[in-house]
Specification:
This protein has 265 residues and is an alpha+beta fold. It is built from nine helices and eight strands. It folds into two domains: 60 residues, Orthogonal Bundle (Arc Repressor Mutant, subunit A); 191 residues, 2-Layer Sandwich (Beta-Lactamase), CATH 3.30.450.40.
Length: 265
């Protein structure tokens, strides 16, 4: 974890740490992980708790992310405009394809999921689906660019120098046995992705999932977001991959037109 020297930076580090730690942490654990004196850490957590940015379980003493960031996140999504404008197209796409759909944007070198619609056959079994954890499907989830169809599309339509910089700044972590971690190979894919108008990912984040994504263009023909289909490898929908490519491209064009007419981007 990076170090910080003032209260604001430390408070931000506390929020980042708790957002990445399901179940939360006690004050001593936060202090140790962030190298913040216990007294300073107590002062920060008390004030974050007062404003609802974090909460504290009285029985365990563990701090977790509070509800104030949820309100801020909803405000941010409202300003982005994608959910309200794109959801009709997402629901249509999920219904036609039979798998889940999502919209992602590029945020600080990562893919940020800003909306998603589950497919008609989506089933929850306990706390997990039959192929990935429920919390891994959350809106607001950040994903790597190199191993996701959304990420590959978003990088491919960046200016060449920026795309290469993004790839070189990405550690290209291997998150499944199918993850490709060659930066040279990924850079070599960019022209092909732009030419064909879509990108695929096959078990590169979760071994049993597959995805196809296409770019969403703004009125200046810049790519600000991407839309994807994603589901289990064994889903019947993948038996006709060309049909899915056509569906996701059509949805991307539809969302682009909705954005232009709304003048949101």
């Amino acid at each position: 974890m990076p170090t910080a020297t003032n209260s604001l930076e430390r408070a931000l580090l506390v929020l980042d740490l708790l957002s990445q730690t399901p179940g939360g942490l006690r004050n001593a654990e936060i202090s140790r992980r962030l190298s913040i004196p216990k007294s300073s850490c107590s002062w920060i957590t008390a004030r974050l708790s007062q404003r609802g940015y974090i909460g504290r379980d009285e029985e365990t003493g563990r701090y977790t992310v509070g509800l104030t960031p949820v309100a801020l996140a909803h405000a941010a999504l409202r300003e982005i405009g994608y959910p309200s404008i794109a959801e009709p197209a997402l629901y249509k796409l999920a219904s036609q394809a039979g798998v889940s759909t999502a919209i992602g944007i590029l945020e600080r070198g990562r893919v940020l999921i800003v909306d998603r619609v589950e497919g008609p056959d989506f089933v929850i079994r306990g706390e997990t689906t039959d192929y990935r954890a429920w919390h891994d499907r959350d809106i607001g989830r950040e994903l790597p660019v190199h191993s996701t169809a959304l990420g590959k599309v978003l990088v491919a339509w960046q200016p060449r120098e920026q795309a290469i910089e993004l790839i070189h700044n990405d550690p290209l972590a291997r998150v499944s046995r199918n993850t490709k971690i060659s930066k040279t190979e990924l850079i070599g894919q960019l022209d092909r992705i732009r030419k064909q108008g879509y990108a695929k990912a096959d078990g590169e984040v979760y071994p049993r999932t597959r995805a196809i994504a296409a770019p969403i263009f703004d009125s200046n023909m810049d790519v600000r977001a991407a839309v994807s289909l994603n589901g289990r490898i064994e889903d019947a929908a993948w038996e006709e991959p060309d049909d899915l490519v056509d569906l996701v491209k059509t949805a991307a064009r539809d969302i682009s037109k909705r954005m232009w007419s709304s003048r949101r981007i």
